[in-house]
Task: inverse folding
């Protein structure tokens, strides 16, 4: 009795059950590989693959959103606020003047150098763009204080230079610049920075080298308390 044959398209294989079995096994393996390849083409690559997709719907794939309305710096916690690199600096500001003649707003400068400084051409401003130039005869001794009256007066009032602006109690800035326009020092206060309660001032503690902190009592022309 002749061996049982399987009938396939290649008649040269129609000879024995063993050859028929080998051909069927090879056909099944090839079919499995083709089906598996198609299936893998529709799935995500492994996480360590350079082709892994970024799922933009997942919060873990996105950066932390920034609040553009938030101030860039919180100056109340900034140890570099008003940190001058020269001998002349802003040492205290008082924005709660009750009377331009007897109790005006003021800016207090301090000379930490070893010699007297002639302030001719030096200038100060608040948060506005206009600078007020100090008078030609304004001088500040070594280790001394100079009080600038922010009272909008040309003369009279308290002793010392006068400038054409007052300081804002709820928020403002003070800037000090040299005659060539180089800014030497600055300080700011108000909402989101640091509040100055009524009757108090903002000054360095200790004088010259310290950070600006709220002073319980203004110390016009004297060491901060």
Result:
């Amino acid at each position: 009795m002749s061996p049982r044959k399987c009938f396939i398209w290649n008649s040269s294989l129609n000879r024995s059950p063993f050859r028929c079995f080998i051909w069927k096994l090879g056909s099944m393996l090839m079919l499995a590989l083709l089906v598996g390849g198609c299936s893998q083409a529709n799935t995500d690559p492994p996480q360590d693959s350079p082709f892994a997709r970024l799922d933009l719907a997942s919060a873990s794939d996105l950066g932390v959103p920034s609040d553009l309305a938030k101030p860039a710096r919180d100056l109340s916690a900034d140890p570099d606020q008003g940190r001058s690199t020269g001998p002349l600096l802003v040492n205290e500001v008082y924005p709660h003047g009750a009377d331009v003649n007897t109790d005006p707003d003021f800016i207090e400068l301090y000379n930490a150098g070893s010699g007297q400084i002639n302030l001719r051409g030096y200038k100060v401003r608040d948060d506005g763009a206009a600078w007020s130039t100090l008078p030609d005869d304004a001088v500040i001794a070594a280790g001394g204080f100079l009080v600038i009256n922010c009272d909008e007066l040309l003369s009279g009032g308290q002793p010392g230079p006068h400038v054409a602006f007052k300081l804002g109690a709820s928020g403002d800035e003070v800037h000090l610049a040299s005659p060539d326009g180089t800014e030497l020092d600055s300080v700011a206060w108000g909402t989101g920075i640091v509040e100055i309660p009524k009757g108090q001032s903002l000054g360095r503690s200790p004088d010259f080298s310290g950070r600006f902190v709220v002073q319980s009592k203004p110390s016009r022309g004297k060491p901060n308390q």
